[in-house]
Amino acid sequence: MTIELSKKAEDEIRSKIFKALSEPIRLEIIRFLIKKGTEVSCGEIGDNVNLTKSAASYHFKTLREAGLTFTRKESREKYVSINHELFDRYLEGFLDSL
Question: Does the model's pTM come out above 0.85?
């Protein structure tokens, strides 16, 4: 089921997306997730893109709030994955360019 959004709502979504992607480290996180091709633990991402735990948490939150990623918690571990549907709708072909 597809919900039609007003132009204003669509523009707000786009604004959040572009703001989230304006930070190079977040692009690096997205690139790492694409390379892995599956959900990845926050710790593994932080280790591979050289982020402290607090910095990684901030960037994961920004990406999640923009709708670019999903976060799943299992026990004490959190896992991040790409929201392909959002990229396909608003940024078709973008992931291929990374």
Answer: yes
